[in-house]
Give the backbone structure.
Amino acid sequence: MKTFVRCGQLFTGREDEALKHAALVYDEAGRLIYAGGEKGAPKRRDSDRVIDHSGHFVMPGLIDVHTHLAYGNAKTEEDIDLYSPLEFRALRGMFFAQKVAAGGYTAICSPGDAGQISLSIRNAIDAGLFDGPRVMAAGPYITTHQGLTDWYPTWIGAPETSIGKLVTCLDEAIQEIRRQVKNGVDCIKIAMDGIQRRPDGELIAAFTQEECDAMVRETHRMGKKSVTHAVGREATLYSARAGVDLIFHGFHLDDECIAAMKKSGSMLGPTLTQPKNVIEFTQPYEPAGQKGRIEATVARYKLGCANLKKAKKAGIPFLTGTDSGFAVTPYGEWHARELELFVDDLGFSKAGALRAATETNARFMSQGDEIGVLEEGRFADVIAWDGSPLADIAILQDKSRLRGVYKAGRELKIADRPYDPRKVTDFSLSNWTDLYTQARVAELRGTRQLPEAAE
Ligand SMILES: [Zn+2]
């Protein structure tokens, strides 16, 4: 039995235009036999199945290369690392992976997670225990005292349940890579920088060039992909020279970084949604608002976009990802915002953004040559929309217009189950964000934000 999908418009991911009056045909394994005009489609038999999306825009399932399944919509670093057991985080991650799929994302990469959460979610989905997206899994970030995820004081270090594995020499880093590969990760995440700066303001790379080279070499020797968190120029440059497959952020990249990326073939995942959401959603009363995070992020975002445009002009492949898993980037909500930001802030065409989120993203993914494009031989990972994202890219954020999500030709029907956010994260012991001096209390009473003192 074959399945025929009638498509009002078909965007294959290969071209910039959508084909009108088109069809997809796939076999029982969910592999495409045909993608093209309805007229040229193979003959349909009575026993074949027909799915009618003749009023819809049909395209490859979206891919998000930056969704952290272990974070749980965390409000603090402590929430990411400490409070809930890994077992609870895995169950929670499974639930949220489904939320992501329900938004039209049929594949994600989870680049950096505690324990073996992402790979367990991947395995459970692959075994057919749950419906969900394809998952490309990493283990904990490999980091040093200068890298992201080593956020606690040295006398605490990075606990076992942390998303970071703190290494103190190259040998330890190599052993950790071998351990993670044995456990079954698809990629190795390196924290190439964090938040520490030199007096001149430059972000310090967490590893030397030689250390980065050796880690990436070992990762590739095992047949795995390497990804780095690299915001600063130095971390981006070291990553590019080492041939890291996917560099996240790269906000401070310069011409030297671009030249190195061109030479090694490194791709770039800027992850604009997270900082954009920080800027637009953070309230002034929140700790991030009070600590100047909004202003700092505005400056970084502006500079980042200017630099990233140079890399785009130079032909570096751009991938879409959102850093979902934080309270400002909850799962299933903002994944497609990245495409809108690619258009608005990086100068992508709408078709270019769509192709980034499908065909280009697939180049990085484990099953890269089997997904991301609707063409013969690949899997029918397909989504259908009421309306064309080529006319309005923002409709991809409107789940009420999503008319179908198929993974390998099988429809994913995931109930939109509500949940209690207070019971899935936010276990930090933080209680107050203000300082209640007599003057502050008098001020709040004056503006009626506090009741008058009792008689
Ligand atoms: Zn991230």
